[in-house]
Every structure is written in C-alpha cells, then in structure tokens.
Design a protein that fits this description.
This protein has helices at 59-72, 74-79, 82-89, 113-116; strands at residues 5-15, 18-25, 28-33, 45-49, 52-57. The chain is an alpha+beta fold and 118 residues long. A 5-stranded antiparallel sheet has the order 3-2-1-4-5, covered by helices on one side.
C-alpha cells in the first residue's frame, strides 16, 4: 500500500537543480523532493507520497495522522524493515535473531533435566 504520509522538514537544500529536504516521519528520516512546495520552511510539515512533498500541513493535523498511522501499524508497513518482514513471512529468522546453526544442539532424548524429574 502506498500512503501519503505527513512528515516534519528537518533540512532543505538544492540538489541537482531540485529542491530536496530531509523529512522526519516519526523517527524515520528520508530525503524527498520539495519542488511542489518550494516555499516550505524547516520545522513545517508536508504530506509526502512516493518521494515527493505534495502540500504543506499544519502540525496538529500531521501529529493526528501520524498517531493514527502508528495505531493502525501503517508506519511499520510503509517504513519498516522489508528484509525482516520477508524473513518472517518465509519462516526464517530475522536480522539479529539466532539461526538454527547458531543454536546449541538439543540434548538426546532421555538425557535432559526435565526427563529425570518425571
């Protein structure tokens, strides 16, 4: 799903004859094109879709949208770790999780501590 997500402008710069900005989407920072909102200022909020800021947005509306997106899990879906999701969907351990080869071998049946206590 592609969303138009509100984000706060952290920095603005010219890049290859285009106006770009570093945008904060609730802790995730992405560089986006600001050509459609060239009058935006650092600290203001914009709505971003597929890498382009489409319009300015007041802070109250932006925060309300970000809270709703967070509650619905849409920020994780839009900005989360795609490799981790792919691993989970394939039944594989995600980044930072132990792989089967890294785990200690299981004790042979009948030799575990719980076997003796039955």
């Amino acid at each position: 799903m592609c969303l138009a997500v509100p984000g706060r402008v952290l920095a603005i710069e010219e890049h290859d004859e285009s106006l770009t900005g570093l945008i904060d989407f609730g802790g995730v920072h992405k560089r986006v094109c600001l050509d459609y909102v060239s009058d935006v200022q650092v600290g203001e909020y914009v709505i971003v879709h597929v890498g382009f800021a489409l319009q300015r947005l007041d802070e109250e509306s932006a925060q309300a949208s970000l809270r709703l997106f967070e509650e619905l899990g849409l920020l994780e879906e839009e900005f989360g770790d795609p490799w981790g999701r792919a691993s989970a969907e394939a039944g594989l351990p995600g980044p930072g999780e132990p792989r089967e080869a890294d785990m200690p071998a299981a004790a042979p049946r009948g030799q575990g501590a719980e076997e003796g206590s039955r």
